[in-house]
């Protein structure tokens, strides 16, 4: 064993200098590492010749960014994993810097084993461009209660819930999609190509196909300008995963330190040499923000476009239908663009005391002071509560001038813009029809709560009389019920002529006066709460059991939605049953569904309230049958197949006159027969004659 010679002073100095030089030369250990094989490309299946910033396959990791690592399965399927979600790469274009991706779990599969939102919103990947459309998949919903399934329902057994109903919703979901009657466990957001969205809404492709076509993703290499300089002098771009820095590789090694510019120098260089590199950093940052800014507009536009397209498709098959202007013009603009209505003066009563004696009609509406209303309702005492409406609680009050009023105190500030609220109140106070409740006015904008003041109608609601607290008294004979139907239809037809959609037609909103004449309440209220598609709105739109099934597809209530709800009211008048009753059998929970089944199966007698004399009286039976058929038409799934409110009114009046002129029944036969062809694949309802059993 020879002891190692003690180093001479000169060799010590040499080592010392060498160490300093090495340290000065590079700050990390990578100098000694070789960076080989970045001239290899990645290829897998149809994805070929992929280079920086991507790595994976035969490309070593230092040849690209960690977020751009691709994997290859079975030599055919290329995958990219981002935020722990794996995506199939269907296309990769390194000239335009975009990819077509599809979430792997949802590829050719609508029922994934795990649920992940697909949101690529980082600075590296963006999927929010106008070439995509968002679909929301909603899983684990409890049973759908209508027999006619909506086309956007599908089945998925999932681990998260015992419920197997699932839905897809194209575009934004402004409100709880299936309203409050259906509970869903989980929702997943996934983009698809705009074209797939269009074809899906036209039912030209299935959801599975749409998911399999993927969505477009723009990617952005934050070191792109450094890389182009590196390429400029023959280097190959890479990335040091340990130090997190862009590197430039020359012949398996880092290029000489003078050559690869530091990020600071690059920034200087790229700004001074604009034009050379038109994909420099600042510009890349602008593109996503522009895309984001126009996204909301595109979403809204698509929603309108979608509803329009659906209508067009249907119009093509049924040219006799007319286009409702409601489809194109948003409801908030509609009233102002329509011809002015003529109304009687709204000040038919002496103006009440006002806030500090200010002008009582500050915007053409009668203004009540909050204090007066507080006094009129005993400080909104609960014993005076008449009901809980969609937007507030209603109290019975007595004004100092002796008027009995119904006072609706709106729930705290769930309206968006006071200005719009006042406009809406002004429009509603101008509506005058013998079968509409009069809206006298509201509190001033300075008042602490917004309160609407209506005429008080003393005799309860139709719901109270059909299946509520007064049901047992049996005051509603068939002729009264038919009259209620006619007067309600009359009021709704008037609203529609005035370009107002009621939006919440139900027996709870049909009030009765002492002579059992109808006063329709709560009309147009949801107009005050704009259903802004860019925000999730909590404003209720309609009531479970009464809501137009097409609402679930377009989130838009039209005149034809009122017609649908009115169809439910007609069935309630015939049957005395509630619109929704969970004590009934599953398929009968929803009254409209139950009615459609009974009418189609020619078992109407099982639906009709026997106390009305259906079995006993021939004329009553004839009338009820005709009303049931009218209701059947109102309850059609497709909006365009439903009659207009004017037509409904006309048919009801003819039915009422039947009693007096039995021979006129022929008139009705013709109009009923005409519509049988519209029943869209369903069993044609029996002709009135076959159901009468008495000629
Ligand atoms: C890739 O680069 C290595 C040196 O790093 C070289 O030996 C090899 O020939 C190159 N291959 C191709 C296909 O250019
Ligand atoms: C990939 O590169 C190979 C060889 O460079 C070439 O023959 C082939 O056409 C390329 N494929 C694509 C899809 O560009
Ligand atoms: C999707 O799956 C079906 C069978 O489930 C198969 O026949 C079809 O080829 C698949 N399509 C794609 C694009 O993988
Ligand atoms: C997806 O995102 C929505 C809205 O951000 C959220 O409500 C939902 O729970 C998310 N789903 C999953 C599976 O994380
Ligand atoms: C991206 O998503 C994160 C949460 O996942 C969020 O905080 C961020 O604001 C989003 N960025 C953009 C631009 O939407
Ligand atoms: C879902 O599971 C139920 C039993 O839990 C089964 O009857 C049904 O066929 C399954 N549906 C599908 C689509 O797998
Ligand atoms: C599903 O049903 C089973 C029994 O049928 C019950 O034990 C389980 O808790 C249910 N799961 C959920 C998520 O409701
Ligand atoms: C759907 O297909 C029909 C004919 O099959 C075609 O007329 C229509 O334009 C298609 N719609 C879309 C959105 O592709
Ligand atoms: C960066 O640009 C400034 C002027 O914009 C110049 O004074 C400076 O010398 C430049 N630095 C480098 C490293 O090029």
From TrEMBL:
Pfam families: GUB_WAK_bind, PK_Tyr_Ser-Thr, WAK_assoc. GO terms for molecular function: ATP binding; protein serine/threonine kinase activity. Keywords: ATP-binding, Cell membrane, Glycoprotein, Kinase, Membrane, Nucleotide-binding, Phosphoprotein, Receptor, Serine/threonine-protein kinase, Signal, Transferase, Transmembrane, Transmembrane helix. Its EC number is 2.7.11.1. Residues 261-283 are annotated as: Disordered. Gene3D superfamilies: Phosphorylase Kinase, domain 1, Transferase(Phosphotransferase) domain 1. It is a single-pass type I membrane protein. It comes from Forsythia ovata. This is non-specific serine/threonine protein kinase. It is found in: Cell membrane. It comes from the Eukaryota. The lineage of its organism: Eukaryota, Viridiplantae, Streptophyta, Embryophyta, Tracheophyta. It catalyses: L-seryl-[protein] + ATP = O-phospho-L-seryl-[protein] + ADP + H(+); L-threonyl-[protein] + ATP = O-phospho-L-threonyl-[protein] + ADP + H(+). ATP binds at residue 408. SMART domains: S_TKc.
